Structure formats: structure tokens, C-alpha cells
UniProtKB/TrEMBL annotation:
Originating gene: nuoA
Species of origin: Mycolicibacterium frederiksbergense
Entry protein name: NADH-quinone oxidoreductase subunit A
Function field: NDH-1 shuttles electrons from NADH, via FMN and iron-sulfur (Fe-S) centers, to quinones in the respiratory chain. The immediate electron acceptor for the enzyme in this species is believed to be a menaquinone. Couples the redox reaction to proton translocation (for every two electrons transferred, four hydrogen ions are translocated across the cytoplasmic membrane), and thus conserves the redox energy in a proton gradient.
Transmembrane parts of this sequence: 6-28, 66-87, 93-114
PANTHER family named among the record's database cross-references: NADH-QUINONE OXIDOREDUCTASE SUBUNIT A, NADH-UBIQUINONE OXIDOREDUCTASE CHAIN 3
Lineage: Bacteria, Bacillati, Actinomycetota, Actinomycetes, Mycobacteriales
Subunit-structure text: NDH-1 is composed of 14 different subunits. Subunits NuoA, H, J, K, L, M, N constitute the membrane sector of the complex.
Cellular localisation: Cell membrane; Membrane
GO molecular function, one term: NADH dehydrogenase (ubiquinone) activity
GO CC terms, sorted: NADH dehydrogenase complex; plasma membrane
């Protein structure tokens, strides 16, 4: 149990800090509510008012650039997750790991080229 005591103490301090921060912000924070602050955040897309006719959908489709940007984030996020452990243990790994990482980087480069070709990097 002595081994886990510092971890438990650190967890308790983190929990107290989180609960204390939220509590203090609730009591001493400004309370200037308006209509915009009370609405749900919609990623910059203006929400539509509900339609009187049930057949008319009030939702709207997201632009393709939204999905391309999300795909770009996922591609590079996964790349970094795999590159860090490989870079840390590069010396102890052999030729097989270097070839495997080259193949992985090739696959990521193909995804990056696809993203670039589809216009996901053009921020118009």
C-alpha cells in the first residue's frame, strides 16, 4: 500500500482542485447571462428556428470541408501516437521496425496527399 500512497494523494489533490475551481467560479464568477450564452454551441453554424411544418427539417448538412479537416486531424493524431514510442525506442529496435515505420509513414503520406488533393488544406 505504501507504493500507491503518493498516487492516491496526488489524485485527491487533483480532485479537490477540480471541485474547488468549479465551486469558486460558481460563487465569485460574473453572472451576465444572455441569449447567446444560454444556447448550445454549434461550431459556428447558426442554428435554425424550428419549422411549423413537420416535413421541413430544421437541421442542415455540414460542409465537406468540416469532414476533411476532421480527417486531417485524425490522420496526424494517429501518426504522432505511433511515432513517439517508435522514436523513444529506436535504438533497441531493429531493421524490421524501421521498415514497418517507413510503410506506416508511406500510408500516412498517401492519406495526406488525398487530403491535399481534395482541398482540405485550402482555408478559403
Amino acid at each position: 500500500m505504501n507504493v500507491y500512497t503518493p498516487i492516491l494523494v496526488l489524485g485527491a489533490i487533483a480532485a479537490l482542485f477540480a471541485i474547488g475551481s468549479v465551486g469558486i467560479a460558481t460563487f465569485i464568477g460574473p453572472r451576465r447571462y444572455n441569449r447567446a450564452k444560454l444556447e448550445a454551441y454549434e461550431c459556428g453554424i447558426e442554428p435554425l428556428l424550428p419549422a411549423d411544418d413537420a416535413k421541413l427539417a430544421t437541421g442542415q448538412r455540414f460542409p465537406v470541408k468540416y469532414y476533411l479537416t476532421a480527417m486531417l486531424f485524425i490522420i496526424f493524431d494517429i501518426e504522432i501516437v505511433f511515432l513517439y514510442p517508435w522514436a523513444v525506442s529506436f535504438d533497441s529496435l531493429g531493421l524490421f521496425a524501421a521498415i514497418a515505420m517507413m510503410l506506416f509513414l508511406f500510408n500516412v503520406s498517401v492519406a495526406y496527399a488525398y487530403e491535399w488533393r481534395r482541398g482540405g488544406l485550402a482555408w478559403d
